[in-house]
């Protein structure tokens, strides 16, 4: 189904919930959290009001980028079961309205953080929006099975934005937090794509299990989880974090590695398709969300104490 066709769908009345859903609130929650951690651990005092404006700016930017993503992806969202009920493909919000909404929020977020803090934070936030909307959504997502690997950088910028808002510069620790999110994204999203493979295949999105198969994806999940373990322990090895983070990272990494091995060893047929309904992949996906929240929480506690 073409985007033009979808744009001509009859519109039903939209609700406040529809406009809220355009912001991708689940994604926003995690992005805002990692951005807030970058702000809180920065070696500079931040006025509480300014801190609240920074967090609000990151939330608005995430929502704006999400709305533009839903505008552009309305054709493939209409095909996939888990996204077909979104406001744009379901006809509750007109595509042009979703686009205008997303652009307005994106511009507002950059202006807000720039006026409240500094140009380093504003430029970084603007590039984050650009990366997600143009580089990931409009280019990588539909062109390469490495879309999640390269595009993962889009969700990794918030800690840098938070730190830059507090200090006016970019430090080594937020860059390492960026790297953690970057290497966390592939095993997180590929775990989801294993059991959503049919949806992506029907929509023509070249996700790794669609292009390379389930078995190859299982190995990649393990490989990237090992890389994530190495990156997550780097702040400890170079003395940027203390014992609280060290213990938390070691335990969390051990749990992730165990689940990645279970995904690899899941009962499969000759093509690598799970015979258990991808139960290990679903467990790994849920764990990955808790992993990132707990790891970043440990950074914050470690630095505060």
UniProtKB/TrEMBL annotation:
Which gene is the coding source of this polypeptide chain? cyoE
InterPro entries referenced in this protein's UniProt entry, alphabetically: Protohaem_IX_farnesylTrfase (IPR006369), UbiA_prenyltransferase (IPR000537), UbiA_prenylTrfase_CS (IPR030470), UbiA_sf (IPR044878)
Source species: Endosaccharibacter trunci
Predominant localisation class: membrane
Q: What is the lineage of its organism?
A: Bacteria, Pseudomonadati, Pseudomonadota, Alphaproteobacteria, Acetobacterales
Q: Which family does it belong to?
A: Belongs to the UbiA prenyltransferase family. Protoheme IX farnesyltransferase subfamily.
Q: Where in the cell is it found?
A: Cell membrane
**GO MF assignments:** protoheme IX farnesyltransferase activity
* Miscellaneous: Carbon 2 of the heme B porphyrin ring is defined according to the Fischer nomenclature.
Q: What is this protein's name?
A: Protoheme IX farnesyltransferase
Protein topology in the membrane: Multi-pass membrane protein
Pfam families registered for this protein in UniProt: UbiA
Q: Which UniProt keywords apply?
A: Cell membrane, Heme biosynthesis, Membrane, Transferase, Transmembrane, Transmembrane helix
Q: What is its EC number?
A: 2.5.1.141
The residues that cross the membrane are: 27-44, 50-72, 93-115, 121-139, 160-184, 221-238, 244-264, 284-304
Enzyme class, broadest EC rank: transferase
Q: What does this protein do?
A: Converts heme B (protoheme IX) to heme O by substitution of the vinyl group on carbon 2 of heme B porphyrin ring with a hydroxyethyl farnesyl side group.
Hey, which pathway is this one from?
Porphyrin-containing compound metabolism; heme O biosynthesis; heme O from protoheme: step 1/1
């Amino acid at each position: 189904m073409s985007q033009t066709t979808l744009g001509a769908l009859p519109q039903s009345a939209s609700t406040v919930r529809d406009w809220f859903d355009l912001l991708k609130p689940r994604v926003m929650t995690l992005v805002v959290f990692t951005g807030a951690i970058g702000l809180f651990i920065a070696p500079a005092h931040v006025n509480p009001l300014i801190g609240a404006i920074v967090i609000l700016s990151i939330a608005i930017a995430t929502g704006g980028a999400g709305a533009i993503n839903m505008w552009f992806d309305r054709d493939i969202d209409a095909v996939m079961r888990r996204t077909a009920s979104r406001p744009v493909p379901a006809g509750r919000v007109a595509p042009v309205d979703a686009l205008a909404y997303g652009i307005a929020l994106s511009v507002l977020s950059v202006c807000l953080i720039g006026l409240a803090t500094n140009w380093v934070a504003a430029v970084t936030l603007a590039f984050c929006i650009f990366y997600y909307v143009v580089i990931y959504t409009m280019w990588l997502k539909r062109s390469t099975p490495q879309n999640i690997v390269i595009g993962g950088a889009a969700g990794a910028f918030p800690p840098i934005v938070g730190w830059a808002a507090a200090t006016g510069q970019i430090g080594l620790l937020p860059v390492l937090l960026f790297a953690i999110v970057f290497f966390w994204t592939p095993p997180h999203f590929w775990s989801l794509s294993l059991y959503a493979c049919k949806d992506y295949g029907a929509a023509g999105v070249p996700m790794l299990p669609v292009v390379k198969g389930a078995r190859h994806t299982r190995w990649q999940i393990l490989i990237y989880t090992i890389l994530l373990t190495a990156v997550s322990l780097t702040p400890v090895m170079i003395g940027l974090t203390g014992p609280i983070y060290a213990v938390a990272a070691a335990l969390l990494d051990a749990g992730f590695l165990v689940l990645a091995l279970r995904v690899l060893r899941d009962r499969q047929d000759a093509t690598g398709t799970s015979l258990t309904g991808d139960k290990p992949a679903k467990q790994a996906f849920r764990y990955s969300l808790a992993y990132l929240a707990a790891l970043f929480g440990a950074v914050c506690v470690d630095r505060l104490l």
